[in-house]
Fold this protein.
Amino acid sequence: MTSATETPQHVPADKHHSTLRHPAVIAVQRKRAQSVQLRIADQITRFAGSMQFVYIHAVLFAVWMLGLEKSPWPTLTLVVSLEAIFLSTFVMIGQNRQAEISQAKADHDYREQELELDHNTKVTELIHQLTIEIHAAVAAEKQQQN
C-alpha cells in the first residue's frame, strides 16, 4: 500500500520486463546510484555472480595450468586465493545491500501499516458515533410517535 503522497512506480527490472517496484527499493537504489564505490561494487558483484565469470575463469585457469606455469601452480594458487578474498568481500557487500533493502521495505511497510491503522481507527470511531446518533434519532422518533 502506498500513501497518498507516493505513487507506485514502474521501474524496469531488466530489459525484457517491467515490474511494479516497492518505493523503499527505489529509494535505496537511487541512494546507491549516487555513490561511485557502491555502483562499482554492484557491477563487480553482478559480474562475479554470472556464468560469463565462470566461463572466463575456466578458460583462464586452463590456459594458465597448461601453458604458463608448471604443477603445483604456486602463482595461480596465490592469484586464486587473493581473488577469493576479494570476491568474499563483494558477497558481503551484496548481502549488506540486500539487508539495507529489506530494512527499508520493512520500515516503509511499518509506516504505511501504522497510517492505515490510524485511518481505520478514525473511520471506526466515526461509524460508532454515527451509529449512536442514528440510534438516538430513531429512539427519539419512536418516543414522539407514542
